[in-house]
Amino acid sequence: LTPHGAGAAAESGSNGPVKKSMREKAIERRSINKEHNSNFKAGYVPIEEERLHKTGLRGRKGNMAVCIIVLLFLLALINLIITLVIWTVIRIGPNGCDSMEFHETGLLRFKQKADMGIVHPLHKSTVGGRKDQDLVIVGNNNPVVFQQGSSKLSVEKDKTSVVSDVGISFTDPRTQNTFFSTDFENHEFHLPKGVKVLSVKKASTERITSSAASDLNIKGDSKAIIRGNEGVNIMGRTVEFKMGGGIELRAENSIVLNGSVMFNATRIPNSAGDVYFDEGLERYKLCMCADGTLFRVQVKYPNMGCQTSDNPCRKAH
């Protein structure tokens, strides 16, 4: 190209389309074809495993998800079992509970037989039945026990025991009449009709008596101690002491036996029997004055009588 031709081409480019040479057109055509051919791979993603984008729960997250699913399944199964138990035992239906009733006063009423095992009352431990129906409580090879705090009522096969630190009372809930109570400070202590034996370890009362037509027997397994702050006064048509071992009457001042006093001689030891006299063995002889005063004399020689200078008989006269 001559300079004149170059000037003409530049001038024509400024005023109109520029004419390209054959070489430029071939280069442009090859680039268009190359771009067109590469456009067929638009949106293509390699499908090799290592080049794919990983989704989902894998590794520890997957194990944790399996554990959660198993736990939810177990909870659902336990909930189903509890629901079936409630449905079959308590019998809850669309109309309410068929076996029990709940009242606003806190009363729980059983309308059918109930197997409860151990019951722990929370507030008031009151158990009762309907007025015209019996209340039947059965223990299968076990005692029926009612317990609230330190108070305990146990109904067993051969006995019924009541244990309480604050006392007990049996009261009619309708008439509020007390049949039996250990509160002897407010009223006189009476045994219920038909009860003949009262077994206690320790009792504090002002007076123990029986009816005029029956005897009053006080027995102790090991020993019986009757003590009074102002003395003990025992009265009766016949007062009899029966002891398996020794008998002891102790007083600070004196003991007064008013009436006919009788002793069973067969139960009193005899110091003058066939036993050989031993000075080293301490023996005593029971003696009685004309006014009924009893005293003892130490036996110092065989066939010793009640003659002694130190006796209460002479002091009384």
UniProtKB/TrEMBL annotation:
Keywords: Cell membrane, Cytoplasm, Cytoskeleton, Disulfide bond, Glycoprotein, Membrane, Signal-anchor, Transmembrane, Transmembrane helix. It is found in: Cell membrane, Sarcolemma; Cytoplasm, Cytoskeleton. InterPro entries: Sarcoglycan, Sgcb. Residues 21-32 have a biased composition (Basic and acidic residues). Belongs to the sarcoglycan beta/delta/gamma/zeta family. Cross-link to form 2 major subcomplexes: one consisting of SGCB, SGCD and SGCG and the other consisting of SGCB and SGCD. The association between SGCB and SGCG is particularly strong while SGCA is loosely associated with the other sarcoglycans. This is Beta-sarcoglycan. It comes from Seriola dumerili (Greater amberjack). The lineage of its organism: Eukaryota, Metazoa, Chordata, Craniata, Vertebrata.
